[in-house]
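TICKET #2291
ISSUE: user wants both folds in one file
ATTACHMENT 1:
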Amino acid sequence: MTYRRLLVPTDGSELSDRAVQQALDLAAALGAEVRFLHVQISFPISLVGVGELVEPSTIDALVAAARQQGDRILQGALAQAAEAGVQAEAALQSNPMPHRAIVEEARGHGCDLIVMASHGRQGLEGLLIGSETQRVLTHSPCPVLVVR
């Protein structure tokens, strides 16, 4: 199978940046396109009455700052793709379950490979928080290349 359209979720971390570079190297070798994805974790502010304690303008400022950070991450990835001569596009999503956004993005855009980082949570943290990478592996409609 030849991969033609790679989905690359990125959170801007060092390990995620390595996955971006691996994906670009692979895309350049295959003549494939890349779609970068940054998923912001949305959450309800009204949990346990916290919403009443937070000024609405503060919430708006936090959302705007998160969007700007996501845009910076994606613009950096797009600049790397341009430098590598790889055709790329980017999307910013908000979802309380990042793995769902990744899987939906892969399905919706005809991606035939997902290239993503494994953040390697272990022990109690891994048990309690789980791994978005593991969830993507479980639900993905296409192969997943995990970069460590």
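ATTACHMENT 2:
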Amino acid sequence: MPDLLKTLAVIQHTSAEYLGLIEDHLEGRRIRFRYFRPFTAGGRLPRQGEIGDGLVLLGGGPWGVAEGASRLPWLEGEIELAAHALAAPTPLLGFGLGAQILALAGGGGAAPAPLGLEVGTARRTAEDALGGLLPATYPLVRYGRDEVALPGSARVLARDERGGWALFQLGARAYGFAGHPGVKSAIIEDLIMEFAEAPPHPASALAQLRSEQAQIAAALVPIMAGLTRVLGLMPQGPR
């Protein structure tokens, strides 16, 4: 019998940030995931043949795309890998820094911006976003730096409170989230402790994040249902 389970390659950029609440949703759908950690000694990016059924690019803490190889020596290779997935097209998700890498792989640009931690609200701008399952509003937690100009082919599906993009679609099966939709407060706390550089005065944003953890978990239910549908990630065959 052929293996009917789906497998995702997940690129971590820091020790602290991982899939978070998304892990349970994937495991509940029998979707496997394998982490790649290019920032560790002996770590590397996945090869094209190791992407499997999809590629996930996580956030990068205080790292940003505008700094390029000075902090992310594997950045060019990761952009090339994302461009390969876009061309296939292979299901591709980017969160935070990962969404910036996705935008660059699609032909967007980058500009420096200071490191920050924001807890706000995203609003859906396309009724059919994620197969119609994206909530009208959902919590938006952003930890990172730098900004990207989306490529002209990108479709914005949700915007933040200032009108900037919160979620975009690029091509048939690629989506970039400005923040991590399955973030846990412990991820942000660990990011602050992992690096010498931290956002200024994070206490109030952390308190707000903790108070909204239940809303984040609730919003993730339809978001993951939509993503697995539009990305074609539901395994086929008998249980």
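RESOLUTION: both attachments delivered.
EXTRA DETAIL ON ATTACHMENT 2: The chain has seven helices and eleven strands.
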